[in-house]
Amino acid sequence: MSTVFKNRLTKQIIFYLCILIIWQAVVILKIWPEYIFPSPLKVFQAVLKGFGDFSFVFAILISIKRILIGYGISILIGGALGVLMYKFRTLDETIGSLILGIQTLPSICWLPLALIWFGLNERAIIFVVIMGALFSITMAVDAGFKSIPLIYMQAGRNMGAYSITLLRKVMLPASFPALLLGFKQGWSFAWRSLMAGELLFVSLGLGYLLMVGRELNDMAQVIAVMLVISAISIVIDKLVFGRMEQLVKNRWGYRRKN
Amino acid sequence: MALLSIDIKSRSFQSSTGELSVLKDIHLEVEKGEFICIVGPSGCGKTTFLNIVSGLDHDYEGKIVYKGEFIRRADPKMMLIFQDLGLFPWLSVSQNVEFGLKIKEIPKQEREKKVLEYLEMMQLLKFKDSFLHQLSGGMRQRVALARALVMEPEVLLMDEPFAALDAITRDILHEELQRIWSFTRKTVIFVTHNVREAVCLGDRVLVFSSNPASIKTQFTIDLARPRHIENEGLIARVRPILNELKEELERMENVHRI
After folding, report:
1. Contacts of B51 in chain A (CB under 8 A)
2. A39-53, A225-239, B52-66, B157-171: which has the minimum mean pLDDT?
3. CB atoms inside a 10 Å sphere around CB A102
4. How far is CA A24 from CA A34, A52, A256, B134, in A?
5. CATH number (domain holding residue A140)
6. Looking at residues A120-140, what average pLDDT do you find?
7. In 3-state terms, what secondary structure has residue B111?
8. Does any domain span residue A167?
9. Chain A contact set for B79 (CB, 8 A)
10. Domain membership flag for residue A164
11. Does the residue A250 lie in any domain?
12. Do B131 and A174 touch (CB under 8 A)?
């Protein structure tokens, strides 16, 4: 008995079964009408239907495409800005303080401005996604490079690594744990910004599917889409960032310093 | 002409209390194949001295001439073994040893052969795929030695490399270092605060004074090799050097008292 409960997976299965049972019980008790509180079965059917008629598939592809573009641009610009701030102290003292200020702003606050600049289109959403991730990444690169122990750079130079080679072979790997932290944070900001942005107008992504569900009073679809969104977040967290964190742990052999 | 001609007129640091002079008038001619040990009070600027000789530190007055050429930047011809080693935690043992060869663009086959050869010399073959946190202090020390030796430098600069080790491991590494030196005949500048270690390893022992550092006295050690740190003849040589060092420490204390 006790060995069964020690197993993490078993515990989790039992936990989720309990949630399903309570959920179903609430539905059977008819505390709320079904259109407000759909049954697990209805939600499951909505998931099947969404994948069956490919509406979920398209929405996922569209959202993934947007986040890849937005996040990719954030990495490029943020990486370059971070390196410049690391290299030039004046930039660090000026742009750095500005970024600290801007970073406190939830990135969805950029949407009205983006709509005026770019109109109701793809570019506005991608702009919001970029603003979501950009500053986390910039600051992670700047801080990550600053925290590299001088001795790694000296050792690198002593073995003949200068400029770009030093950056590629020493600075990037040496700051990898810190960069990973910032990139992960940037990703989650970008993903949240994307969903918020897609909610606000006809945009054909996952966020938009949520709004369609609301407009049709189809709670089952709303919950189904929410499940899909969190499933994607979990998969990326585990597969991409989780693996990299494991790699850091294996090599550095400690919990991250910061 | 000497292999390495060191002529440092001065090196000072800017501190909050003004300019702090660390090195002053250090003149030293090093012959090919010579093993030179430097002892001095801790914090006397020995590390700064090695950084300048290796070419990592340029902010000094004077000149370092190696084989008739000025040293302008760090180069694998002179490998510095840092007090804190500066091994790269993101690389495995063999990748750490391979690092400099890769920068040098040595072909893969030759690289692998050399890495194995030096790992074997340092008795690290079993640990070639380990990461640093899996190794003991003595093993890490040997990785650092392998990483420097694999570059086949003409000069080895060693900065208190055995200071953090227990006495037994240190004894073993002394023997290994003497063995390696006996057949490679590298030119070595070895900084330590352990006088016995200096007498055990060096052809010449230089005593540094401090604030600012310069060469106070020189001792020539013509004992037969291999030497053992417990050897009686060796211990007799230690006494006068210790006296010099003690005098220097007392002088420092008096300076501080004033």
Report:
1. 154
2. B157-171
3. 14
4. 11, 24, 42, 51
5. 1.10.3720.10
6. 92
7. helix
8. yes
9. 158-159
10. yes
11. no
12. no
